[in-house]
Design a protein that fits this description.
By secondary structure, this protein is of the alpha/beta class. Helices cover 40% and strands 16% of the residues. Helix 6 packs parallel to helix 8. The N and C termini lie far apart (55 Å). The protein binds pyridoxal-5'-phosphate. The beta subunit is responsible for the synthesis of L-tryptophan from indole and L-serine. It catalyses: (1S,2R)-1-C-(indol-3-yl)glycerol 3-phosphate + L-serine = D-glyceraldehyde 3-phosphate + L-tryptophan + H2O. This is Tryptophan synthase beta chain.
Length: 447
């Protein structure tokens, strides 16, 4: 039995797949919060390069991957597809479990797939400097790596609490040439005004987004980049599923269930969307998106227009949301702590194509430890949610032969602090109180 299926460089996809024209029911356009009308490209053009905006709005099914982008992706792509035979054995299941290993990238997650493409399009439009925000540091690291490849400066606003608690993330960004400041910083108006009122604030992703956007909007040479949620990020991540599909064909398998963990939705969608045409042709494929019980946007949120950040500085997006001022509790799957869900994934949930699965963090860490012991790779805490989902599917009925494919979004070698807290019994399960979600929902913008 083949353990892993590895493609040659020249078998790598040369086009991305855009699912938008194939989505039943289509997508609602992003709105300008001032006019409540679809936002104009001119307005978005202040912070995004035009070629990225074209991809964001595109209804072309296949879009060429530029040669320069392919050359950089080849540093680690095509990524291996692995059959988790040892995990199957440990579970005693007849199910076949495959995972696509995105942990082999320079920063250990799927995020550079989009960072490299975004840095490239900024480069060809003459952008000299890119700003972004980062929570735990994964996206900041990916963008620092990508910008270094194109000689672009990268400025990362990193949430204060992570900046203080996770100094090695900062070192990774610095190694790739990124400049990192703790957010709120005294380098922006919004940062200064928050520091004046709350000098000891731990910061938040919302504040960091607002600072990065202000920085980009006020400098001629600077644009902004976002690491998940938006259509162009899902487009860039589709390379995961396109490769996986070829590899599954080589293995002689078709997946019955496709699973991914969902923060903003990009790694899950990246694996899942290339299978949407097969689904629409009537093939029986289930798409399962797993999320933490403490931040359950597709299980407990509503489908509505909402802001992408607390400071209400982004366009309104039509998505499943817990409310832009929802503050998720500090569970350790940092990358899954986002109040909203990609409009593409949201549309698939609405059409009942995606089944949401809500999981508690302790069962996810247990799954991660079993995976590490059996398959030998320590997963990121976010990825543990995908693994748990795969285990749930594989053990529903141990005798049911089925083929499961999940996305291994990243390794956890820089997350051992979270594992320490798990081993010390310092982590607890947490269901977010219904009332908190309702309170936050009451503040949704009125459309
Ligand atoms: C950022 C991140 C996620 C969540 O982001 P998505 O946009 O939902 O994919 C999941 N896993 C890892 C390892 C991450 O770094």
């Amino acid at each position: 039995m083949t353990k892993k299926i590895v493609l040659r460089d020249d078998e790598m996809p040369t086009q991305w797949y855009n699912v938008v024209p194939d989505l039943p029911g289509g997508l609602q356009p992003p709105l300008d919060p001032e006019t409540k009308q679809p936002i104009t490209p001119e307005k978005l053009g202040r912070v995004f390069p035009m070629s990225i905006l074209e991809q964001e709005m595109s209804t072309d099914r296949m879009i060429d991957i530029p040669e320069e982008v392919l050359d950089i992706l080849k540093i680690w792509r095509p990524s291996p597809l692995v059959r988790a035979t040892n995990l199957e054995k440990a579970l005693g299941t007849k199910a076949k479990i495959f995972f696509k290993n995105e942990g082999v990238s320079p920063v250990g997650s799927h995020k550079p797939n989009s960072a490299v493409a975004q840095a490239y399009y900024n480069k060809i439009e003459g952008v000299k400097r890119i700003t972004t925000e980062t929570g735990a540091g994964q996206w900041g690291s990916a963008l620092s790596f990508a910008t270094s490849k194109f000689g672009i400066e990268c400025k990362v606003y990193m949430v204060r609490v992570s900046f203080d608690q996770k100094p090695y993330r900062k070192s990774i960004m610095q190694t790739f040439g990124g400049t990192v400041v703790a957010s709120p910083s005294n380098e922006t108006n919004i940062g200064r005004s928050i520091l004046e009122k709350m000098p000891d604030t731990p910061g938040s992703l919302g504040i960091a987004i607002s600072e990065a956007l202000e920085d980009a909007a006020t400098r001629e040479d600077t644009k902004y980049a976002l690491g998940s949620v938006l259509n162009h990020v899902v487009l860039h991540q589709s390379i995961i599923g396109l490769e996986a599909k070829k590899q599954m064909e080589i293995a002689g398998e078709t997946p019955d269930v496709i699973i991914g963990c969902c923060g903003g939705g990009s790694n899950f969608a990246g694996l899942a969307v290339p299978y949407v045409p097969d689904y629409l042709e009537g093939k029986k494929i289930r798409f399962v998106g797993t999320e933490p019980a403490s931040c359950p946007s597709i299980t407990s949120g509503v489908l509505a227009y909402d802001f992408g950040d607390v400071a209400q500085s982004t366009p309104l997006m039509y998505m499943y949301t817990l409310g832009h001022d929802f503050i998720p509790p500090g569970i350790h799957a940092g990358g899954l702590r986002y109040h909203g869900m990609a409009p593409i994934v949201s549309a698939m949930v609405r059409e009942k194509m995606v089944e949401p699965m809500k999981l508690h963090q302790l069962e996810c860490f247990e799954a991660g430890v079993l995976f590490a012991k059996t398959e030998g790779i320590i997963p990121a805490p976010e990825t543990c949610h995908a693994i748990r989902g795969a285990i749930v599917e594989a053990t529903r009925d141990l005798n049911e032969p089925k083929t499961i494919l999940f996305n291994f979004s990243g390794h956890g070698l820089i997350d051992m602090g979270s594992y320490d807290r798990f081993y010390n019994g310092e982590l607890h399960n947490y269901d977010y109180p219904e009332e908190e979600i309702l309170k936050s929902m009451a503040n949704l913008p009125k459309i």
